[in-house]
Amino acid sequence: QVQLVESGGDSVQAGGSLRLSCAVYGGTVSYVMGWFRQAPRNKREGIAVIDRAGNTMYADSVKGRFTISRDNANNTLYLQLSSLKPEDTAMYYCAVVKTEDLDFALDVLSVMSPGGDLGYWGRGTQVTVSS
Questions:
Q1: How many CB atoms lie under 10 A from the CB of residue 60?
Q2: Phi and psi at residue 3, to the nearest 5°
Q3: CA distance 115 to 88
Q4: What is the residue-wise DSSP string for 10-56?
Q5: How far apart are CA 130 and CA 89, in angstroms?
Q6: Digit-coded pLDDT (tens) for 53-103
Q7: d(C-alpha 82, C-alpha 97), whole Å
Q8: Structure confidence at residue 59 (pLDDT)
């Protein structure tokens, strides 16, 4: 069973940067991987996805500020967060979506259920941005 472990979350000032990492244990992921976030009282939001070839897609809310990357040799997924805003405050989760379609994966990140057939995710890492 593949496990995902996120790290890198922190508290930063608005305008700052962070790099989140997601280590993959127990196997190799050939599917699309991505990041979603969830803040209290907010809906879950899929924000970035990447396929094994390195093609990417982003939600409009983070486009131009966040960069997703993937190191297949070292089984690690990254999310570089720049120009952070207070509204970026959330728990950030790394996920595998069982598809090779980026468009579908970005949509599914917002709705897939725990234990479902569409994918799985880690325990998350907290990002807090103060103004």
A1: 7
A2: -120, 145
A3: 27
A4: -EEETT--EEEEEEEESS---SEEEEEEE-TTS--EEEEEE-TT--E
A5: 8
A6: 999 999 999 999 999 999 999 999 999 999 999 999 999 999 999 999 999
A7: 25
A8: 97
